[in-house]
Structure formats: structure tokens, C-alpha cells
Specification:
Largest sheet: 8 strands, mixed
Mean pLDDT: 85
Strand content: 25-35%
Number of strands: 13
Shape: elongated
Order of helices and strands: HHEEEEHEHEEHEHEEHEHEE
Radius of gyration: 20 Å
Length: 261
Amino acid sequence: MTDETRLDAAHAAMEAAPDDDAARLRFYERLVDAELSLLLAFEETEGQISPQVFALEEGNVVLAFDREDRLAAFADGVADQARLSGRTLVEMLAGQGLGLGLNLGVAPSSILIPAEAVVWLADTLRTEPQAVEARPQELGAPKGLPEALITALDAKLPAAAGLARFAYLASVTYEGGRRGHMLAFVDAHPGAREALAQAAGEALIFSGVEAGEMDVAFFAASDPVSARLARVALRFDLPVSEEAEAPKAPGMDPDAPPKLR
């Protein structure tokens, strides 16, 4: 168990800079994006899961691990588990009075996240982007954006494989004079706009940019705006997904999350 995971690295960065809010936010972002193994009290049945609950001085917690071998090490062998995203797990636990023990005792990223922090994280994930109608008038290279946001987008957008061909980040002036920055997705998959906008919003939130604002737009490759963006904007290539979608493990489909029992 010597291979460092993304959660290990983010946790180490957070521990090395305890007063750095941005490092703490990056850890939480890695947590919600991770695929976790949740320790169960009983085998999953009919989409319902029964997490094993541990009563600690800090309160009741469930345990999850970012690698299956770490769960096996904690359980000293084979144990019932459910594989689900950190985002799904946080949303399930919020309001249940349950904290989250992550990699407890088996990894450098061992940490106990109290119930109130789970609620805060779930509330943060529920922040919905606002839809507006505006047409860009002037486009340019992004200016004055913190490196943390660029890093957050670099880390977040690969998870959107297959949802769009690529994305452009540019400074923008709209008709009417409003200025800002725009993340434009090109040839987004039908039905993926909400998920892409949510991912962009999370990158902004977890980058630690105070009072930050970044518009999200969608264009076809044939749109003249796409050609203008190609000349001046910062481009992010999204990975190409497999043509045949693999079956999702329990808890990995946000449209059909397992239920706590």
C-alpha cells in the first residue's frame, strides 16, 4: 500500500498548510470526485445499503476507503462493501447525523470528517448555476485568473470525458458592456449541459476564489464564436470516452443512487 493516491496527495498538502483554505478546499474536491468503497454491515440488496456505523467520541461515523485493498486491510479480509462516488456518499449522509471516516488507520490520508462538515460539503455541491442570455461581443485571452482555478479545471474536466469535445476559457465582454470570464464547451453532448455547468461551478468553488464568477457557455464547432475562441482562448481537451459505456457499479450512477437502509 505504498502507491500514493490523489486523496493522499491532497491530504498531505492540506496537512502541510493547515491555514491554507485553498489546500483544504482542494482536498474536499478530491474527496467528492473519488470513487470510494463504503464498508457495509450487510450485503447490498435491491439498491439499498446498510453502512456499518461506528460510535466514536466525535459521534457516529461510517467508513469509506479510496482503494478496495485499504478496506480489506481495515476489515482484516473480505467485507461487504458498496462502490460509490464521494459525491453520492456525501449527499446520502447529509442530514443523517453521520460523519465520514476516510481511510482510517490504513493510509496517509486517514481523516475523520464530522457530520457538520459533511452537511456543509453537501450544501456546497447543491449550488446551482444561474442561466442567463447574453452574446459575447469581444473575446480575449484569460486575464488575472488565479492559478488555482486553472489547476482546478485541469483536474475536473477529464471526468467529463465524452460530454463535449473540448472547452475554451476566455475573457469576455458582452453586449451591454458587462465583462468577465467564460468557459465555453464545444459540441457538448445532448443532455450534458447541466452536468458540465455543475462541474465548472465546482471547480470555481473549490479553487478558493473569493466572490469569483465564471460564465459557462455552449457552442457548436460550426458557430463563428468557436473559431474566435480558438484564436485567443486557453483550450482544455476532454478525453474521448469509450463508445460502449461500461455498466456502472452501485452508487456510481447519479440518476440511480443507492438508498440508506
